[in-house]
Amino acid sequence: MKQSARGWQEFWAEFFRIKHRHSIESIRDFDERFASHIIKALALHRGERILDLGCGGGDQAAALARRGMECLGVDIAQTLVDYANRTAREENLRAKFICADMREEQFREAFDACVILEAFGFFDDEGNTQVLNAVKTALKKDGRFYIQGPNPLSRMKKPWKGWQEVEDGYVLMESNYDPASGKNSDSFFYIGADGEQIRFSPKPEDAGVSTEMRLHTLPEMVNLPNTAQLRFKAAYGSIRLPLEEYTVTSDHLAIVGKKAH
Q: What are the C-alpha distances in Å from 195 to residues 2, 3, 118?
């Protein structure tokens, strides 16, 4: 029986963000509804420039582009960037994707809004602050931001563990939340139809990739953006419309705000 350890960019990025994700029923409808929610929460208008940090396969950015936005996505995995650019070309969308570290301040006052979807908290406190500084630098004057992830309070339940059938095999996934550290850790193990077993092991090119995510509480998310001169405005608890205010029982925690003067 063949066994191997593969890195995020080598195998798991494409596996989870493209193959597995697109096997989920109604995922396209989910992305379209998510885009509608973001547009409402940020009061976006056609033609505005949107930066999507940690964009994965670019599904939400593509959904925003279908609604008339001009989008630039950034992700560390070249496989995902290539997939997103191919989708944009095939659909003739005003969207482009580049491979880069989301902590890098490489854009200056170029975007009307920035979104970070399920991708904030992968670094230590210094790294997460660098991400927020990159957001501030990239935004135009009065530019808006939207940062969304799981509600840590909803993760204070029993650890989740289970098998899922996927393309050509099965994957065992486990998720644990530690309230003391505020970190949610994931593990995954794949068994192919041919019996091949693959586990995750980071490679040198995976610098910055982590299976742990720091889930910030609402008070933290109110105050944390201040370190980068970003001002909190509101918090929402779902991706549904009409907008739903965040509560302790919400599945999601999304904050919106704008760049301080």
A: 7, 9, 32
Closest CA to 149 of 41, 251, 256: 251
What's the mean pLDDT when you consider all of the chain?
A: 95
In the block, residue with structure tokens 């509560």: 247
CA–CA separation, 186 vs 202, rounded Å?
Answer: 13
8 A C-beta contact, residue 75 and residue 61: no
* Inter-residue contact 255 to 220 (CB < 8 Å): no
pTM for the model stands at 0.95
**Rounded to an integer, what is the distance from CA 146 to the centroid of its chain?**
11
Q: pLDDT per residue over 53-112, tens digit each?
A: 999 999 999 999 999 999 999 999 999 999 999 999 999 999 999 999 999 999 999 999
Going from N- to C-terminal start, the domains of the chain cover 27-152+216-259
The answer to whether 175 and 160 have CB atoms below 8 angstroms apart is yes
* Spatial distance between the Cα atoms of 146 and 257, rounded to a whole number of angstroms: 7
The strands making up 252-259's β-sheet, listed across from edge to edge, are: 95-99, 70-75, 49-53, 111-117, 139-150, 252-259, 230-236
Q: Please, what CATH class does the domain formed by 27-152+216-259 belong to? A: alpha beta
Residue matched to tokens 């990159």: 134
**Which residues, at least 6 apart from 172, have a Cβ–Cβ distance to it below 8 Å?**
161, 162, 163, 188, 189, 190, 191
Look at the block and give the residue holding tokens 């201040």.
226
